[in-house]
Design brief:
The chain is of the alpha/beta class. It folds into 2 domains: about 325 residues, Zn peptidases (Aminopeptidase), CATH 3.40.630; about 110 residues, Alpha-Beta Plaits (2-Layer Sandwich). It is about 40% helix and about 25% strand. The chain has a 6-stranded mixed sheet with strand order 1-2-6-3-7-15, sandwiched between helices.
């Protein structure tokens, strides 16, 4: 079948399932759960895959789910991803009352559009002969609850904070040649086809002082809060040594400042990210931050424990793949501007880790209003949030696998990186060795 006719057939199948797709999206929205705990969304994905007749693996990275369009198909394997988790925003009107989790980053839209694309492509799977398609529901993109996840790491249940990282480590991406997904945004007449963002290291810091009566004998104590305060000043003092082009962002918070106001604080905790545009920039900045923290602790006489955790690698969309995505977006929705961002922005995502080891793109489509991660975030247009990205991704797959997968093979041949799914763990071992 002509690929344009194939695209039309896929889009008709998605439209025919629109009511069901919207029902799925709203059900996930109303049941937000945080990373590595997304049992509701994971169950919805498994149920939908089962209804489509797709064989799937579950329990990947605790809650992840993977299905293939066809069994044993030869040729490039293109993956469509969606993220399962919510973010912490207890003031959001639809937040879970027990956890504060709320779907105010739009991930419910991602997972729904992934499932919608599976519905569309399932309608033509016998007519796709140039390769295969994998549908992947990924846990834990939001890097929250660091202490909880560090506990999972210590228990041996996970190795990485981020779900895509964990799935790379587990070998889930080993048979995948390229990947794509869509993140929601609040653009009205624009679709983003390419982005660049920073990566980061996550840090937990514990200052250990000595308690004493804060009024009667403070001289007998060692004030861990003073050490933490000095560390903040020291970190601020190194900012002028950081290069503009490296886009370094350092943002610490104190999560525990002591126990009682009349006791000299002896146990003070901090969390922070050290972000940067390149792996080398992150390593350099993190070394300086660690030095500042240790120097502050020494000045006050505290002990300090620094726990560095793998964050996410920098995001850089594969431009060849982005143009296939963008061309389909323009063809389907000609009234929209197609944007290719080349300037580095300050956000981060574990999709950067996937982009480091294979061609990958994360597009951006509207459907939402107000600030992401805020109490005012709202779903505004289900067509844009669920249906539009599904059609773009499904049609992109058809272009990639047409003519015996010629375009996919070309992109794979032009992708050059020293890293792959097999040596991925070594990237973080090198970063964390500083």
């Amino acid at each position: 079948m002509d690929k344009q006719l194939l695209k039309q057939k896929v889009c008709r199948a998605i439209d025919a399932n629109k009511d069901k797709i919207c029902e799925i999206g709203l059900s996930i929205y109303k049941n937000p759960q945080l990373g590595y705990k997304e049992t509701f969304a994971s169950d919805v994905v498994q149920k939908t895959f089962g209804e489509l007749g797709l064989k799937y693996e579950s329990g990947l990275g605790i809650t992840g789910v993977k299905a293939k369009l066809k069994d044993g198909a030869e040729g490039p394997n293109v993956c469509i991803m969606g993220e399962l988790d919510a973010v912490v925003c207890p003031d959001h009107p639809d937040a879970a009352p027990d956890t504060g989790a709320a779907h105010c980053c739009g991930h419910f839209g991602q997972i729904t559009s992934m499932l919608a694309s599976a519905m569309g492509l399932s309608a033509v799977k016998d007519e796709i002969s140039g390769g295969n398609v994998t549908f992947l529901a990924v846990p834990a993109e939001e890097c929250v609850e660091l202490e909880y996840r560090e506990g999972l790491i210590k228990e041996g249940k996970i190795k990485y904070l981020g779900g895509k990282q964990e799935l790379i480590h587990l070998g889930v991406y080993d048979d995948i040649d390229m990947a794509m997904m869509v993140h929601g945004n609040n653009a009205d007449k624009a679709i983003t086809a390419a982005n660049r963002n920073v990566g980061f290291i996550a840090k937990n810091v514990k200052f250990i002082g000595k308690e004493a009566h804060a009024g009667g004998s403070p001289w007998n104590g060692v004030n861990a809060l003073n050490a933490a305060s000095l560390a903040l000043m020291a970190i601020n003092s190194i900012r002028e040594t950081l290069k503009d082009q490296d886009c370094i962002r350092i943002h610490p918070i104190i999560t525990k400042g002591g126990t009682l106001v009349n006791i000299v604080p002896n146990d003070v905790r901090m969390e922070m990210y050290v972000r940067g545009a390149t792996i080398e920039a992150i390593k350099d900045a993190n070394m300086k931050v660690n030095r500042a923290i240790k120097g502050a602790a020494y000045a006050i006489g505290c002990e300090v424990e620094i726990s560095d955790l793998p964050g996410y690698l920098p995001v850089a969309d594969n431009l060849e793949l982005a143009h296939v995505f963008g061309d389909n977006a323009k063809e389907l929705y000609p009234d929209n501007e197609i944007i290719y961002n080349t300037e580095v922005e300050g956000g981060s995502s574990d999709v950067g880790d996937v982009m480091t080891v294979m061609p990958c793109v994360q597009g951006g489509v509207g459907g939402f209003v107000n600030g992401f991660h805020t109490k005012d975030f709202r779903l505004d247009d289900m067509e844009k949030a669920f249906i539009v990205p599904a059609k773009i991704m499904a049609c992109t797959v058809i272009d990639l696998l047409d003519d015996d997968g010629a375009k996919a093979k070309e992109i794979m041949a032009n992708f050059h990186s020293p890293y792959n799914t097999k040596n991925y763990d070594g990237i973080w071992e090198d970063i964390m060795s500083v």
